[in-house]
């Protein structure tokens, strides 16, 4: 039945009697019948007649400027917004149901592990139902959580995801206000970018075990993320073009991109080449960098490899757009989180570029000043494939 109604209370009661029948006879079938039985049980628990409950639903939809609804829609609306059977579920139980649902929906293992860590800390403070947690308790907990503004923001985001999911799955009423704001929105100032120098890089590489060395070398020369590098296989390298393909299924942005390999990196990887398989066969790729720093007696810098490679690459290339494409970020993100101004000579030393040799990303041209006979030239064999030497350029002096 798809008849829409905007009746008065008496007309509504009369129409409901015709549709629902008298006594135990109900002229509904299938899902509509199940929704009706569920709504009737809820109405009985609340001491309310089913027609009064549906009339309440009609009024709520009218206030929301909706034009009307079928009886089936009203039953579904009422049962969704008034089912209190799960409201008393303790917070740890809701968290476990939330994590199980996220796993079923295909969230990554990393995302689920992060949520579990933060939400278990939250349920350690609150074992009561979510509906019993007040705004002041939320604010007090979030103010005391974490040692930085970023950590607090991440905790708040995880709790917000839990609360929103609970509202959609009947663990909280649909009109629950959610996690309260802790105050005005303040932009978190980014930390100053720190990088390794060439000597520190070599100390870290020297501490790598044979199984860790290919992973360490790739991270020391290529602006690639830790997880992306941990998922790289030997089949992804193209040694003829000196390029490494980062496929979308392993990239953070889910976009395929290709990154350059400098000659020095190719030469250092050559003794360790294998026909197939992962560059690093274990799942503990996140722990390799901190372990090398600890063994070398060097402070471990968060995102140290990535910041160092990007900063030295920008010092050589002097083109933020090309560097951003190589790193899989936008130029604004590179400037804010990964870039530190360095001398070009430091960048050339980092990549082992000899005099007259250029990085594959570096825009290069051959210039001849005819009047001064001053030639700035490069050996054509050392030029990248995408560079066309210019025969001559007339002087404008």
List keywords for this structure.
397 residues, mainly alpha, hpI Integrase, Chain A, three-stranded antiparallel beta sheet, two-stranded antiparallel ribbon, 17 helices, 4% strand
Written account of the structure:
It contains 17 helices and 5 strands. It has 397 residues and is mainly α. The protein has 4 domains: 9-82, no CATH class; 91-168; 198-350, hpI Integrase, Chain A (Orthogonal Bundle); 364-397, no CATH class. The strands form 2 sheets. A 3-stranded antiparallel beta sheet has the order 1-2-3. A hairpin with a 4-residue loop joins strand 1 and strand 2. It is elongated.
Poorly predicted regions are 1-7, 391-397
Gyration radius, in Å: 32 Å
- Tell me about the biggest sheet? 3 strands, antiparallel
Q: What is the terminal-to-terminal distance?
A: 87 Å
Mean pLDDT: 80
Biggest sheet strand line-up: 1-2-3
Q: What overall geometry do the principal axes of the alpha carbons give?
A: elongated
Helix content: 40-55%
CATH superfamily of the largest domain: Intergrase catalytic core
CATH architecture of the largest domain: Orthogonal Bundle
- Order of secondary-structure elements: HHHHHHHHHHHEEEHHHHHHEE
Strand content is under 5%
What is the third-level CATH name, the topology of the largest domain? hpI Integrase, Chain A
CATH C-level category of the largest domain: Mainly Alpha
Q: How would you classify the helix and strand content by structural class?
A: mainly alpha
Number of domains: 4
Number of helices: 17
